[in-house]
Amino acid sequence: MRLALGLEYDGAVFHGWQTQPGGRTLQDALEAALTRVAAHPVATVCAGRTDAGVHATAQVVHFDTFSQRPLTAWVRGVNAHLPAAMAVRWAAVVPDDFHARFSARSRTYQYWLLVDPVRPALLSQRVGWVFRPLDLEAMQAAALLLEGTHDFSAFRAAECQAASPVRNLHTCLVERRGRFVRFQFRANAFLHHMVRNLVGSLIYVGLGRRSPEWIGEVLAARERSRAAPTFAAAGLYLSGVEYDAALTLPGGGVTPFE
User: Fold this and answer.
1) Rounded Cα–Cα distance for residues 226 and 218 (Å)
2) Domain extent for 208
3) Which of 34, 74, 177, 237 would you call most buried, defined as having the most Cβ atoms within 10 angstroms of its Cβ?
4) Active-site annotation holder among 10, 51, 96, 116
């Protein structure tokens, strides 16, 4: 049978999602724990491969097993074999044609940015940071230009392997939360480093280095060199993956700041 799992993890202590020879990756840790509970080798597929340093509150994976276990075993039992920085939040039986990646209708990422003259200590590795004030209204105006279906070539990494740079960015929100600015992006799918590149460019606008209209010009140019540098991974969270409601899978998780 096929099962889906919901995961949360602190990406700062792992070398990204995808398995590596001898590497400390999330996929390696999860598959080792699942193999111990299932008593046979287990291979997983995730909704979105997160880079090193990127966190998740609502990652979704699927795997196949012939082992009969209660759902609690796939949660508490697997967690007993996982590193402390990673946990299964829920488990569910899904149809055989369910695919964690290809069945997803949308994905949501949040980026949490600390705006403070002094760098974070307790929140190091968990938030991005700028020490200068930001013009929130300018950033919000720029964010609106990004919503919709566009060619996001200007915001994709050079090593991105996606067949097409066209994505539908349903939501691009920027809002102040106390000392933080929260960015929220919801799209049908994302390109490699797309969110971090968008955040970096929106911060340029917030710092007054560029006008809000510049974002639209960069988008239209479709050249990576026109946008701002890729921003730090520390504040990025995969916070939701949407599937057909008929599957009745649990929704997204909350970040530590909500």
Assistant:
1) 6
2) 106-238
3) 237
4) 51
Distance CA 27, CA 203 (A): 32
pTM for the full predicted model: 0.95
- In the listed set 69, 103, 137, which residue is the last one of a domain according to the structure? 103
**How many other β-carbons are positioned within 10 Å of the β-carbon of residue 187?**
22
**Has 135 been annotated as catalytic?**
no
52 with 70, same domain? yes
225, two tokens: 């060199």
pLDDT in tens, the chain (258 residues): 999 999 999 999 999 999 988 779 999 999 999 999 999 999 999 999 999 999 999 999 999 999 999 999 999 999 999 999 999 999 999 999 999 999 999 999 999 999 999 999 999 999 999 999 999 999 999 999 999 999 999 999 988 989 999 999 999 999 999 999 999 999 999 999 999 999 999 999 999 999 999 999 999 999 999 999 999 999 999 999 999 999 999 977 778 777
Residue 251 lies in a domain: no
In a domain, 222, yes or no: yes
Contact by Cβ (8 Å): 154, 227: yes
- Final residue in a domain of this structure, among 103, 132, 162: 103
To the nearest 10 degrees (0 to 180), the angle between helices 212-221 and 194-206 is 150
Would you say the C-alpha torsion 66, 70, 75, 78 has a positive or negative sign? Answer: negative
